[in-house]
């Protein structure tokens, strides 16, 4: 039986929520799927909760992240891809929900269009999927979709695309296991570099849970640093081929990252951002002076954002 879909879910301490996620998968109108939950070392009873689902439905299985793999959702996603048996891959998160027609609609569109992946829209909800608080700005492909995605004018998250597994394997597309935030943006930026011609279902088929533990809701120093690292990786790879508008977006992002690190009193990371920005954008003498002056101003007075904005 062909066209098997592998749904891969990393999970860490989600005993209270993963049951809802798995129930939304069991409710799929398309039935030829396997669901691989990769546990990231949970210390609650997540493993037991998923094991109970495995006993009820043999399409669900749970494995532990190998010890030699680094901790984090990225390594779990990559390991799930490696051991999957499906022809198609849908990464998903352990706290979100699928519309019952997600797999059926996207797979049908994918086969019909003969593209490598299919994207759907995502609704953000609070407490219950009946309480929608936002719809992500997700659009069909276009001539400039790569740059639009880079500049976050076209947005989708890990859960939205359904991929041909062969496409991912052929191009060696995996999540960056060194990143602790912005990994999906970085990953999909590389995906779009290889193939901008995706198919699109103009319907909310993913329900993204908005809660305090969600990584997307966190903006601490470590998250902001990883946001910068992700942009640095992509700009290093593709920056020279970008339009002036996209390059300007990255330059502004890097100077804002410099401000964020200074504002967090992390002067070591601030120096690293300055070094990368100077190297990647060939800063003018005056630009370098303004950034150095901002550094001194923050160390002495705890402020200097307006100085950075002079660059």
Explain what the structure shows.
This protein is of the alpha/beta class. The chain folds into two domains: 5-217, Spore Coat Polysaccharide Biosynthesis Protein SpsA, Chain A; 221-308, no CATH class. The protein is 45% helix and 17% strand. It is built from twelve helices and nine strands. Strands 1, 2, 3, 4, 5, 6, 7, 8 and 9 form a nine-stranded mixed β-sheet that branches. A hairpin with a 6-residue loop joins strand 6 (117-125) and strand 7 (132-135). The termini are far apart. The model has no long low-confidence stretch (mean pLDDT 94).
CATH architecture label of the largest domain: Alpha-Beta Complex
Instruction: Indicate how many domains the architecture comprises.
Output: 2
Number of strands: 9
Q: What is the CATH C level class of the largest domain, in words?
A: Alpha Beta
- The CATH topology assignment of the largest domain is Spore Coat Polysaccharide Biosynthesis Protein SpsA, Chain A
How is the main sheet built?
Answer: 9 strands, mixed
Mean pLDDT: 94
Query: In one word, what is the shape?
Result: globular
- Quote the distance from N terminus to C terminus: 60 Å
CA-based gyration radius: 21 Å
Strand proportion, as a percent range, falls in: 15-25%
Number of separate helices:
12
Helix content: 40-55%
The named CATH superfamily of the largest domain: Spore Coat Polysaccharide Biosynthesis Protein SpsA, Chain A
Structure class: alpha/beta
Give the SSE order as H and E letters: EHEHEHEEHEEHEHHEHHHHH
The poorly predicted ranges are none
């Amino acid at each position: 039986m062909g066209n098997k879909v592998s749904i891969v879910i990393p999970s860490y301490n989600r005993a209270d929520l993963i049951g809802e996620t798995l129930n939304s998968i069991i409710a799929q109108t398309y039935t030829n799927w396997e669901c691989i939950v990769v546990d990231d070392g949970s210390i609650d009873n997540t493993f037991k909760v998923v094991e109970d689902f495995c006993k009820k439905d043999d399409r669900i299985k749970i494995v532990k992240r190998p010890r030699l793999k680094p901790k984090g959702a990225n390594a779990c996603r990559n390991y799930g891809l490696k051991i999957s048996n499906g022809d198609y891959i849908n990464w998903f998160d352990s706290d979100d929900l699928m519309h019952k027609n997600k797999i059926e609609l996207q797979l049908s569109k994918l086969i019909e269009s003969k593209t490598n992946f299919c994207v759907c829209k995502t609704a953000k909800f609070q407490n219950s999927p009946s309480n929608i608080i936002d719809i992500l700005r997700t659009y069909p492909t276009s001539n400039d979709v790569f740059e639009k995605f880079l500049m976050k004018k076209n947005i989708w998250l890990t859960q939205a695309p359904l991929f041909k597994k062969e496409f991912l394997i052929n191009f060696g597309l995996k999540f960056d296991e060194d990143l602790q935030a912005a990994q999906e943006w970085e990953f999909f930026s590389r995906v779009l570099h290889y193939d901008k011609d995706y198919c699109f279902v103009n319907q909310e088929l993913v329900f993204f849970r908005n809660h305090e533990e969600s990584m997307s809701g966190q903006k601490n120093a470590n998250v902001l640093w990883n946001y910068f690292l992700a942009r640095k990786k992509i700009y290093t790879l593709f920056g020279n081929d970008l339009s002036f508008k996209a390059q300007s977006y990255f330059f502004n992002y890097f100077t804002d990252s410099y401000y964020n690190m200074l504002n967090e009193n992390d002067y070591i990371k601030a120096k690293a951002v300055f070094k990368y920005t100077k190297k990647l954008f060939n800063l003018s003498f005056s630009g370098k002076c303004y950034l150095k002056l901002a550094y001194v101003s923050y160390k002495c007075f705890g402020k200097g954002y307006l100085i950075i904005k002079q660059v």
